[in-house]
Amino acid sequence: MGEGKILDIAHVSFLDMIKVMITMSGAAAAKGTLIRNALNTAEKIKEVEYASFNDFLAAIENASNPITMVEGKSTHIGDFVFGLQACPFGPSIKNYTSVFETLPDGYADFTEEFNKPGMITNKYRVGEGAGVSPFCSVHQPLRSAVAEKIKIGGKKIEIYQLGCKAGSGKKGFADKWIAETGVAREVVDKVLDNHMCCYFLKILN
Amino acid sequence: MDSKEPLKKVLIVDDEEDMIWSLQKSLNNENLQVDITIASSGEDALKVLAVKPIDLVVTDIKMPGISGIDLLMRIRNRYPNTGVVVMTAFPSPEHKNEALAHGSLHYLEKPFDINELRRVIKEALAHDDLFKGTVSGIELSDIIQINCLSKSSTTLRVKTSSGREGRVYFNSGAIIHAECGSLAPEEAFYDILTFKGGMIECISTKALPKRTIEKDTEALLLEGMARLDELKAIEQDKKALGTPKVEMKVQNTDQDGDNKNEEEIMNGLKNLLAEFTNLPGVNTACLVGRDGFLLDSIAIAGTDSEMIGAIASSGFGASESMGNQLQKGGLTMTMIEYEQGPVMLAPIGREAFLVVVADKEANLGMIRLKIKKHAGEIEKTASI
User: Fold this and answer.
1) Which listed residue, A79, A144, B186, B237, has the most CB atoms within 10 A of its CB?
2) Is B35 in the A-facing interface, judged by CB distances under 8 Å?
3) Cα B12 to Cα B16, B26, B67, B98, B119, distances in angstroms
């Protein structure tokens, strides 16, 4: 086994564990478990308040922003649309597929399940086509739930997942959230050309 | 046989004198020592029975006057401790079924080997050595289960005080046939289970009718008991109508709270969930998404419905996955029994399932009935 074929067993265990969950309890229950897991993680994040949107952006740059803490640095494209350069699960997927070539069976069913309209994805404004892998069911609700801990200028914020890109380059669009935010689909498409994830931040009145 | 014991008394009934003579002459030997009496008609046989205790009657069917079947029926009614074996030179499935249904221990087709008759008589008299008597205060279902567990081959004759009568046939403990009025065998069995009070008679028999009930006996019993529970529950429910339920905490998973239509939906769901929590012994009913997130619930104080939903989704999913693996088709309902009572899970449409948490005293049949009755309505109301 060459150097590039060394498995990170923490990653492998997690990826295979998802497969086991799908086999044992079905895609829907597995999805729920991962989302609950994400929400529990978000619950541990401390509340934070920024005086202005610029302060919020500055916190992304210095990696003190809670959203940055869970997913890495994102870029403000403009008009509250953000792009995330690297998927936080990218290294895990890359490591796994470098040895096993393909992701475990059942992942497609899981992704389809995540994209179905549902109470919890509706609540956190995720899925609806923006899921491109089972990891999106962890990442997207986690970001939305973490955002609930953030205030800008004393106002709560909400995150809308607009789209996502798989490692293969295949893009997923959440047309429901795109329509609700009024962001042009073309903008999302363009953001995903250079980013893995695209979301919208709304400051509530 | 112990030589000190009195000889068993056997009455042979046939209108053919040659047959009677032949049987009387050849039956007794060192292996079968019995006291044989003869009668040339059913009427004569009844006269003998009236004055002499008889252990076993071997009777022809086709006789002038009282037929062998009529004689059999009269003996079963008047002399329940007397065994009967029926024989005929004109065998037919109908005759056989009729004879067995009325408690004939064996059905012999003429001509038969005399050794075969000796064996049959020996077996029938051995049956006579079993305990006899009256047992009261026992459920019919218990008797049925005893027959199953003891791997009996027997006919269970059940007669209610109002005159309804049914028979359940066991072969090596398996329920193979049942009769009750004009009902199909399986339905006859379920119907017999609903009989309330009366007399039960177990008739040992070697000649059994053809198997008509193919369903596994355990499944048959479970279904029968569930139906019985449902019936009892309906009666209880009628009595319990209007009984208020106390100390209920309503948990509502409110998403926006400002949508009137959503509020109407939730109220509709609450009413449907209350159909369950209003049942005696049911304390919690939750509608849960397949992903384990709670859609709505009515729960007793102290119950964490969110947690129930999360955990139950794994159980529900696991049950469903097992069904898929075993190619058992879609899951219709599953029940997990705990020391303090059961939890029942049932799918609601393709996206949700119902969780009903009950005490051990709860009527499971009634819960099942309610699930069957309201599942579609819940799906429609919740738009899932």
Assistant:
1) A144
2) no
3) 11, 13, 14, 20, 15
